[in-house]
Amino acid sequence: MINLADFKRWEIIGSGGKTTFMLENAKLLAKQKCGQAKVIFTTSTHLAWLGARQPNFYPGRLLECGGPEKGSLEAAEVRWRELNLLTSAVGASAQEEAGRLCGLARLNAERTKWIGFTPGELDRISCWPGLDYLLVEADGSKRLPVKAHATHEPVFYAQADLGVAIIGMQGLGKRVEEGQVHRPELMCQLLHCEPGAVIGAGQFVRLACAYLALLPTQAKVLVFSQAENSQPNFLAELAAQVRKYWNTVAILSQAADKQGQIVYREF
Known about the structure:
This protein is an alpha/beta fold and 267 residues long. It has a single domain, classed as Rossmann fold. Helix content is 29%, strand content 21%. It has helices at 18-29, 32-35, 72-87, 94-98, 119-125, 184-191, 201-214, 232-243, and strands spanning 9-14, 39-43, 46-48, 61-64, 101-105, 113-115, 133-137, 162-168, 220-225, 250-256, 262-266. The strands form 2 sheets. It has a 9-stranded mixed sheet with strand order 4-5-2-7-1-8-9-10-11, sandwiched between helices. A hairpin with a 5-residue loop joins strand 10 and strand 11. The radius of gyration is 19 Å and the shape is globular. The N and C termini lie close together (9 Å).
């Protein structure tokens, strides 16, 4: 089984569960090094900022960075260094320990979205002192289970050593039209289908392979998310079909159990 903790700089793309995957794994990685691992999660595109409506949605501590003006990233690094020293101290409080897991956010003026960092900025962040893991969400999908990518995305950074592609099982049976998939016109081109066509298993596998083809990293992981109602045998068959084209990729499923805990299975 692949040990995701062996990889230190992640980029996560796809649809139907990227943010859930990033946040769940950020929490898991923070338990590395006997609970001393320092983790930052952020985005190269954008993330919804739920703010007061769901203050506990993002785990750990929010580390805000100013706009793209000169000096803002340097100021955020200074705060990171201070936090790094604080959370490394013997006898650190629970609140201080929570600071080992940080969401690095550049908020828009309305404080409704995280604005993405540039690839160059992410490469600099990846070298911050004491940082064990950096997880970056690298595209958007309008909260839809499947998508086709435009030419301007995903937004990758050079230091990444693991690429993760997420694809939502709820995309099976969806029609290639607005409100059911992201960018239906581009998806028609990708799947060589007519608008309104239903996504079956073959088209789903083609989408998964298209996601994987975008990842520049040597190490790649495919995640079948939203798999609560998917039978293991069916997931295994999808994995086998993907491996006809990507025989070295690690393939997982992601699902919430009856207690709401996220569970992973490797195929």
